[in-house]
Every structure is written in C-alpha cells, then in structure tokens.
Amino acid sequence: MKDVPKLFGSLVFNETIMKDRLPTATYKAFKEAVQENRPLDLAMANVIANAMKDWALEHGATHFSHWFQPMTGITAEKHESFIAPTAEGRAIMDFSGKELIQGEPDASSFPSGGLRATFEARGYTAWDPTSYAFIKDDCLCIPTAFCSYTGEVLDKKTPLLRSMTAVSKAACRILKLLGITTAKVTSTVGPEQEYFLVDKKMWEKRKDLVYTGRTLFGAKSPRGQELDDHYFGMIKPRVMAFMKELDEELWKLGVLAKTEHNEVAPAQHELAPIFTSTNVAADHNQLTMEFMKRVALRHGLVCLLHEKPFAGVNGSGKHNNWSLSTAEGLNLLDPGKEPYKNIRFLLFLAAILKAVDEYQDLLRISVASAGNDHRLGANEAPPAIVSVFLGTELTAILEAIAADKPYDSMPVTYMKVSDNTIPALVKDNTDRNRTSPFAFTGNKFEFRMPGSMFSISGPNIVLNTIVAEELDNFADRLEQAEDIENAVYKLVRETYLAHKRIVFNGNGYTDAWVQEAAKRGLLNLKSTPEALPHLTDAKNIALFEKHNIFTAAEVESRVEILLENYCTVLKIEAATMLEMLHKDILPAINAYVSDLAAAALDKKAAGISAGFETKLAEKLSNYSSEIYAASEKLTTALSAATAIHTSKEAAAFYHDSVLAAMVELRTAADKAEALLGEKYLPYPTYGELLFGVND
Ligand code: ADP
Ligand code: MG
C-alpha cells in the first residue's frame, strides 16, 4: 500500500505548497484577494507564477496550459512550453504573472451559438484562483474561465462562479437577519459518478460504441440485471485493479475519491468523492471522467460515460449532492437540534421548495441532452417531471406549520418555529426514496437527474441561481419585519402552502405519478427539443440577468448550442446505424440465409426431409426486408432533416422523425440478431459486452 497521505495532492499547487513557497506577504495578499473576489495585481501574479513554475519544474513539468471548460462539456487545454530564449542563444524556463492570469486561445472552433462572428476569433482565459493549479502529463494546468474578447461568456466555469457569488450574497443577507455573520456562503457538491466498463477488444468491434458511446443495436441477452446481484456485489479483479489505480491518480490530483462500488446493471460501477465547493467539485469531476477513460485503457477496458449505453438495463447518472455552507463550515441544510437552527433550516428549506417549483423548467433543461433523454423516465431513473422528496418527518412538520397546528403530540403553545418543538431529524436510511429527482437526504439535497456525461456546472448554475433568487425575495420581505421569528414562521407557512404541489414522497417511476403530476400542474417536458426552448422564456432571462449570470444574448446562444448539439448527436447516431446495417448486419443475415438455403438444398438432394433451415431462412429473409424498409425511412428522414434551417424545428424533427425511424430500424434488426448463428454475428452481443470482463 502506498503512503496515501503523501500521495494525496502531490501534483497540486495547493494551500500547503503556497504557504511554503510564497513570501508570507504575498500569500496573505493572495488569500485576501480570493476571499474578497478581487482580481490579482500583476506584481503578485509574477511572484506566484514564478513559485508555481519552480514547483512545476521540480515535478517534471515542461509546459503550462490554461485549462478551461468550453460549451462542449469537456475540458480544453493548449500546451505552451515554459521555454524562453536568452540573448546568448540558449533557453531558460520562464513563466510570467501575465501568462498565469490571462491567456488568449483562438476561440473560433469552440461552440459560441452565434455569439461571436468568426472574424472576431479571439477569446481569453482568466485564472480561477479558487481552484488549485495541478500537473497533468508534465503540464502545469491552470483552471481558468473562458470568455470572448468582447466579454461574452463562452464557458461553464464563469457562470458557475457567478452563481456561487449570487447564492452566497443572498444567503448572507438571510443569515444576517437571523443574527449570523459570515464572510461567505459556499455551495457544496459531492457528485456520485456512474459508469460502465467493457472489454476494449469487444468495444473495438462495435462501431456504435466507438462513434456514439452507446449501442444502437443489440438483442437483449438472456440475463440482464434481473437477479439484482451486481449492486454492491464482489468487484472483479480487473475492475478492482482499475479502481485502485484510478483512486491513486485522482488522489495525486487532490480529488477526494472516496467510495467505489458496483452499480445495479452488470458492468456498471460508481465512484463518489467527498463533497467540496461546487467549482472545485466541477473541476474535479471533469478530471475524474478523464482519468476513468485513461486508466480503463491501461487495463484493456473502455469506460462508457454515456447515459444509456445499453437498452433494457439501467443507465448512468450523476447524483448531484448539493448544500450550502458558511465560511465557518456550518451546513445550512443540517436540520440540527436547536430551535435557532431550525428557524434557519426551515427558511432555507422553504426557499428551495419555492425555487424548485417555480423553476422546474430550468432544472429540467439543465439536464437535457440526447443521451439523457434515453435515461430519464426509463424505469430506473427519475422521470422528466421535477418534484421534491422530503420524507415523512419533514413533510409532517411542514404540514403542521401549514395547518397552524402542533407537530405530532406537542401542545399548541410549542408550535412556534422558534421554540424547541422540532425534533432533530434522524438521518434514516430507510426513509430513502431513490425514485425522486430531487431528494432531501438528511443534510443535503440530491439532484438525481443529471446524466453521467454531463458537466455538473450546468445543473449547479441553475440550482445556485434559483435558490439565490428566492433567498433574495425572502430577505426583501424579512428585512421589513419587526418580529423576525413570527415573520419567518408566516413566510415558511405561506411558501409551503403555495408550493407544496412540488413535494412528492411516493414512487416516481409509476404511471400513476405521471397522471397525478399532471393534475397538480407540474411540468412534464419529455424530450430535449421540448425542454430546451424554454430556457429563453422571459422569466428565465429575467432571472439570469438579475443575478448577473448570463445576458439575454448569452442565454439565446446556449439554447442554440444545445439544440445544435442534439441534432448533431442524432445525425451521427443515424449515420452510424446505416453504416452498421450495410457493412455488418445485412451481409451477416445474408450469409446465414445463403448457408441455410444451401443446407436445405443439400438435404433435399440427399433425400433427407426438410428441417428448420427453410423456415429460419424465410424468417430471417422477412426480417431483412423489414430492416431494409426501415433503413430507407431513416435515410429519407435524415436527408429531410438537413433541409430544416432553424435549430428548434430541426431538433423537433430529429426527435419526431429521425429518432422514431431509428427505433423502428433497431427493433427489426434486433429480432434478426437474436436468430443469427454464432459465427455469423457481426459484433459482440449484449451478453458478451455486459458479462465479458471475468478476469
Ligand atoms: P449516499 O447514501 O447517497 O451514498 P453519502 O452520505 O455517501 O450518501 O453521500 C453521497 C455524496 O454526498 C458524497 O459525495 C458526499 O460527500 C456528499 N455530501 C455529503 N454531505 C454533503 C454536503 N453537505 N454538501 C454536498 N455534498 C455532500
Ligand atoms: Mg446518493
């Protein structure tokens, strides 16, 4: 066993290293600037850059890079060497403060959704000093925000940082009213990451996995997840070796990888880190996904991060555990034992309920993608309907407040929120609801809708902003109040009564809930093309503008980017299906049918009575006609799609026509695949992919 404490963070220019290597005055000034959200001055940046460079060189780095998160959902980096020429024709290793705080990558090939004319290709990146620099592949990576030269936001980090500022300000206002002063409130996240591992040799043979990350064909294997024996089951040696190495790589980068276990579907696993501040959690989750893929390859495996790599078994999500915490480390969603804390808790709880109810659309949109559409509502993931699970105890407390009645057996006089009537909530594992999209889990909310491939920035930008909005509105009102306790009680009561429709403690996977939700007037935005356009609804633009997260133009550009991405993903998937069909599937069926026909003829010639050959050949031949007809339909739909010019209409068409034709094609092809003899199979089957890693 390696010395983990020594290993942990060994490739990170973290607090300890900074304290150690920076002059005390610089370190102090740096901390203050970060705390107060002020830009760093050049003199300070020069000192830090030099210390960073020396440290990086000692760790074998030769390059540096502004590591940023464009709208592609993955990270981008452009490596520059530290090399600088000297007058004597030699080279030294150099890194200036200017290079540390700002970079100028060519932004023209990153998605901008029409924000930036191509002639204005410049963009700039600015260091986010709240996230530590680290070394990856001998390169000093500096976490940065990415903007266009004219200042429009082109990435996911900038709005996330802004949303953190917004929620911090609003929460501090509320806390002040309750007599708590704190320098800032941080939104914290622990993202649980689900993924699949498949054998690389098998993966290589599947064009669908290679090109699209999910299987586009595949008959069900005789066994799937029915036995429920994979969840928390014994981890196979090769997977174990992968997890061990992944943990070590992540620890070196300061990622708090904590829990590794098997998930529900065969070949599915999960990694959960210990929570940290949201922007660091977002950076770390990007690194986690990157290293999952890399480390898998070293073990002859491929890591699939797609939300639904296999039909018929569970897909993968990313459970976003979210809370708010003061600079002193007080978790604001901890129900606590004392009345004082309960007031605070109920107030934050009410704000969150209101936020989720009023901005259901935004939360839904924040998890919308072509991949996640296959997962949401597919029987193992929350439906596309947003609701909140509170559990019996919390619900009973709010119901009592709503009815202005004592909670449980407490006498009426006790039922003032300020009194010691509300018992500490027990973090009870039986009171868990895994079917809820937004569940209270003891001292945090778990948003379960984000897809496994997502950057967590999007969902957290929304969460932070909508909660900031409600806290601000609450503060506006409470600042006028004379009796704060009474005012809080009234506010909690009113809010719960107005928004209790969002609370649902039952089974979210049932049809009965879909009907009940419709009765309650909750939104059910089933697909990405249906959900995304609501991002530009007036109330949403007003929200983002009010909290300085996005301008209207930036919101519009994001819708464009996301719709375009949806269309592109479907286009690639459809084209891959057609290619597999013509190159692999139809020839395979044909080969088998020919052999069957030849065998039937041989038998006849030999005077043996007809066996299964003719019947099977007939059946397969019929399927191939069905397949071919479906493929023509898909081809027609695909070319019709390219003629549509607005992204909103194109996305709807891809969903209604292209995707529908893909489903038809797959259904026919899977029926044929199930009948093919082993040697005719064009690619590894579901059974082989899902149960193929046995060493
Ligand atoms: P589960 O039963 O869902 O696995 P855990 O207690 O293991 O619950 O937590 C799951 C995730 O929630 C972990 O990543 C954990 O660090 C994170 N978490 C715990 N407390 C908080 C918090 N206050 N804020 C954000 N995330 C948290
Ligand atoms: Mg969990």
Structure description:
Helix content is 48%, strand content 12%. It is of the alpha+beta class and 695 residues long. The chain folds into 3 domains: 4-155, Glutamine synthetase, N-terminal domain (Ubiquitin-like (UB roll)), CATH 3.10.20; 163-218 and 228-550, 2-Layer Sandwich (Creatine Kinase, Chain A, domain 2), CATH 3.30.590; 565-691, Four Helix Bundle (Hemerythrin (Met), subunit A), CATH 1.20.120. Helix 6 packs parallel to helix 15, helix 11 packs across helix 15 and helix 20 (552-605) packs parallel to helix 22 (647-675). The longest helix is centred in the C-terminal third of the chain and has 54 residues, at 552-605. Residues 192, 319, 446 line the site of magnesium ion. Residues 188-190, 192, 272-275, 321-323, 331, 441, 443-444 line the site of adenosine-5'-diphosphate.
Features:
single chain; 695 residues; alpha+beta; Ubiquitin-like (UB roll); Creatine Kinase, Chain A, domain 2; 9-stranded mixed beta sheet; 23 helices; 18 strands; 48% helix; globular; binds adenosine-5'-diphosphate; binds magnesium ion
Topology (elements, then pairings):
Layout: H1 4-7, E1 12-13, H2 15-21, H3 24-35, H4 42-58, E2 63-67, E3 80-81, E4 83-85, E5 91-93, H5 97-101, E6 102-103, E7 123-127, E8 133-136, E9 139-148, H6 157-177, E10 185-199, H7 200-204, H8 207-212, H9 237-252, E11 257-262, E12 268-273, E13 276-277, H10 278-298, E14 301-304, E15 318-326, H11 339-358, H12 360-365, H13 370-373, E16 388-389, H14 391-402, E17 438-440, E18 445-447, H15 457-478, H16 484-499, H17 511-520, H18 528-531, H19 538-546, H20 552-605, H21 613-642, H22 647-675, H23 686-691
Helix pairs in contact: 6-15, 9-10, 11-15, 11-16, 14-16, 20-21, 20-22, 21-22
Adenosine-5'-diphosphate is lined by residues 188-190, 192, 272-275, 321-323, 331, 441, 443-444.
